[in-house]
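Structure tokens please, single chain.
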Amino acid sequence: MVFATLLPLLRHDFWTFRVFEFPRLQKWVINLVIISIFFAYFDDFQVIDIILLVLLSGSILFLSYQIYPYTVFSPIQLSRVKTDSKNNIRLLISNVYQYNKQYGKLIKLISKNDPDIILLVETSADWRETMDKAIGDQYTERVLEDQENTYGMLLFSKLKLENTHVNYLIKKEIPSIETNIVLGYNRIKLFCLHPEPPVPSENAWATDRDAEILIVGKKAAEESLPVIVAGDLNDVAWSHTTELFLKTSDLLDPRRGRGFYNTFNAKYPLLRWPLDHIFCSHHFQLIKLTTLPSINSDHFPVMVDLALTFKHDEHKNLEMDNEEKVEVEEKIEKAE
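Here you go.
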């Protein structure tokens, strides 16, 4: 377990190094269980036992430091507000699992929650046809980029969309969406993405995923409009790359100081972590953030209510040092 805790610190892009960034809470629990077993069943500790206990204790402390920002004990990044202002926006995102045919569960969820914006990823032509028929009359603004490779992306909006572009930032078969949402007299820049995960069945290296995330982070930082970034990033909230993204983009994570909001894996309760993300700029305040019931996908949908208040109150953006700036550029260059 100590090895599994320290391996991601090597910052290698191969999947065997990066996959251990995901189950940090699980590793924390396993370390604690092992230590508890030691004290429960052993009385006479040998030198090797003491060394192991010290290493396990150090591992718990290190993992606690890593997951602490996503506990209720940590300061929040995005302040909360209660409002029914016309400048509110409700966004629902869901990785539907391309081979999931229980379309009705998602349709009912949409009907119940009535979001302004819906982002669906891993969507095939069947998903496009079904969802367009079911909600197209309500969501008249649509970006329909279905694929049969599990990287399809559908965006439905009740609000007007302007300057919409479907981009292929790293690979020609993996789309992302960039658009302006018209909210009253204001405009909001929305970036939607779903990069490849670092797993042998898809891409054994995290290089492309990291680069796509960081390219969007740089775009967000250069944007003068309020910004929302949403999607299944195939990366956990506490990873090094996600932290680099927050520092690069100057965006805020509404989960910080509130909880994990695990979205994957919906089918295995003991193996869950936050893979689906919604980040926003400091122009917003949080009304509500929640994960939604299962739609028979391996991901839970997540929904956020944001208020565009332009209130520059106390928030804690993560600051990037010069070494990290160089690292961001190197990661992007490696994928080009």
